Structure formats: C-alpha cells, structure tokens
Amino acid sequence: MSEYTIVVPDNSILACVCGTNDSNLKLIEDNLGLNVYTKGNELSIETEDPYLCQKFQFIIDRIVDEVNDGGKNTEDIVISVLNTQRKVNSQEVAINVPGGYKKIYPRTQNQAEYINLLQTKDMVFCTGSAGSGKTYLAVAEALSEVLSHKKNKIIISRPVVEAGESLGFLPGDLEQKIDPYLRPLRDAMESIIPMETIRKLTESGIIEVAPLAYMRGRTLNNAVIILDEAQNTTCSQMKMFLTRMGDNSKVFITGDPTQVDLPAKKSSGLIHSVRILNRIEDIGFMELTAEDVVRNRLVKKIVKAYENEED
Q1: Which of 41, 33, 35, 34 is nearest to 16 (CA)?
Q2: What is the pTM of this model?
Q3: How far apart, in Å, are the Cα atoms of 242 and each of 35, 197, 270?
Q4: What is the 3-state secondary structure (H, E, C) of the chain?
Q5: 174-190 vs 134-147: helix axis angle to the nearest 10?
C-alpha cells in the first residue's frame, strides 16, 4: 500500500489542522474513510486511489489557507471545508478580491454553487433566509469584478419600504436618507476590503448608490448591479430594474420571499420574476436554506424553527 504525504511546515498551523486532541483529524478521517497519520510536521494516508489523494490534498490546503487568512474557529473551518470539498466544474470555488482581507470560500455546498453562478452567469437570482450569505457573496463577487478591472463600477440598490417611519422624515439629503436602507450592503463591503478603499471607490463614483425609484430611464453598461431585499419590489419595479441591464454588465438579485413587507394587495416582484424567468438558461437561480446560515449557530436554529412552523 503506497503512502501519500503532505508537509505542513508551520507547527502552529499544523496544530490548528489537527485540532484539540486530534478532533479535526477525526472529522477528516470520517470523511475520507481512511486513517490520517501524523509524524513530525507530516500528515499521511495509505491509499493507491488517486481520487482520495487529491481529495486529501484539497482538504488540507483549504484548511491551511483559511487558517493563514486569520480563521480562528478551526472546527468550523474544517466542517465548512468538508461540506464544500466537491469542486464545481473541476475548479476550486472561491472569491478572490484584490486588496481584500482574505480569499472568500463558501461555507456550504449551496454557497459553492451560488458562487459558481455569480462567476459564470450575467444575471443571478438568489433567495434565502437571513444569514445565508446571499448578499455577502454577491457583494464580494461585485468587488472582485471591479477591483480586478473586469467591470467599471458597482451600482447598489434596494426598494425603500418603510415600516412605521416615512423616509421623508429622516434627516439629511437623499444619500443620507437612503443610507440606513443600504447599511447591510456597506457592512458586507467593510468586512471584505478596507474602509479607505471603499471611500476612494465611492468618491470616484465606482461604487454608486442608486435608489430603485431613480433607476428608470437608465442603461447600465459595464457594471455590476446589485438589487438587495428584492422581495419588496412590485412586479412593475422588478421589470423596470431588470431592463436597465446594459452591455457587459452583471445583475445580482437577492431577497427573502418570507420577509415581504409590501401592502397585502401588492405581489412581490421577486417571487413573480423567479416564477416566469426560471426557464431562461442564461439566468442563474439559487435558493439558500437554513442549512446555509453561517452567522451564528443560534440563528440557524431560529431559521429552522420558523421553516418548520411554515411546513
């Protein structure tokens, strides 16, 4: 029986890979169906199967990369790596944002499929519950497109649907009024690239905030356009938004169909568009679930409880 060995030069990283009392190695062994042997700074498996060798290499490389990028909860890292080890179209799935804090890996297989759609389709609809990564990953891919000079600008928008407080009573100019509604998108950006980079991109117009009501009549070329909270668009608003797409542009639409805040007689443009456009092959569709929630384990339990009640 031949042996396949990986050398991890940094002992502190090797300790993270192995976990407390080799707890992480046990997870890897269960996944591979093989024992993992440690000797000094080497990790080895005994197999003649090239697929298992490749799989073992991929798992260890991903864990090492994420630990090097500052990941601290190594058990969560290992679990996410094992959940997403299957590559999409034989390629490793990740988002590399030039000048960003770290490479962004999917945490679940659904997220891996979603990233693949963001990178290969010009229009992608993603529905999912809070914390499933639908907005964060769309923002990350948009930043990657712009900072790698594939697109000229990012346009971010969402419908303004008040819940007890009228937009007109908020202080400031239009941008200041709309900012609270776009805060989640800004928060996502701030966790991916430095604030100074965001400031420069915004001041130069490369990142543009465009309230949905002000999109009519525009043709958006060479841009990544993100529509967040799309469940709160009306059918006519969604049609207007989708037809703003110009040459060499990408459009990412995200929303949670269970969180519609429209008046009772208004149909959600997101739900309507997913229903009538889902046979168009050039458009990507992804539905994330409670299993894809990565904010906090308690959030996942809360989302599952609500999903079960609806069932």
Answers
A1: 41
A2: 0.81
A3: 52, 29, 11
A4: CCEEEEECCCHHHHHHHHCHHHHHHHHHHHHHCCCCEEECCEEEEECCCHHHHHHHHHHHHHHHHHHHCCCCCHHHHHHHHHHCCCCECCECCCECCCCCCCCECCCCHHHHHHHHHHHHCCEEEEECCCCCCHHHHHHHHHHHHHHCCCCCEEEEECCCCCCCCCHHHCCCCHHHHHHHHHHHHHHHHHCCCCHHHHHHHHHCCCEEECCHHHCCCCCECCEEEEECCHHHCCHHHHHHHHCCECCCCEEEEEECHHHCCCCCCCCCHHHHHHHHHCCCCCEEEEECCHHHCCCCHHHHHHHHHHHHHHC
A5: 90
Query: Who contacts 43 (Cβ-Cβ below 8 Å, separation ≥6)?
Result: 5, 6, 8, 14, 17, 36, 37, 60
Rounded distance between C-alpha atoms, residue 110 and residue 226, angstroms: 20
- Tell me, what's the pLDDT at 91? 63
Phi then psi dihedrals of residue 198, to 5 deg? -60, -45
Owner of token pair 């906090």 = 296
**Residue for token digits 């000094």?**
40
As a whole number of Å, the end-to-end CA separation of the chain is: 51
26, 18 Cβ separation under 8 angstroms? no
> Which of 179, 87, 93, 89 is CA-nearest to residue 144?
93
Structure tokens at 41: 């700074």
Task: Indicate the average pLDDT of the chain.
Answer: 86
- The C-alpha atoms of residue 251 and residue 254 are separated, in whole angstroms, by 10
The string of pLDDT tens digits covering residues 52-111 is 898 898 889 888 888 887 766 778 888 888 877 665 554 678 899 999 988 898 988 899
Question: Which CA distances in Å does 293 have to 49, 81, 110, 209?
Answer: 34, 15, 11, 27
Per-residue pLDDT, 74: 76
Whether the CB-CB separation of 81 and 108 falls below 8 Å is answered with no
Tokens read off for 176: 């200041």
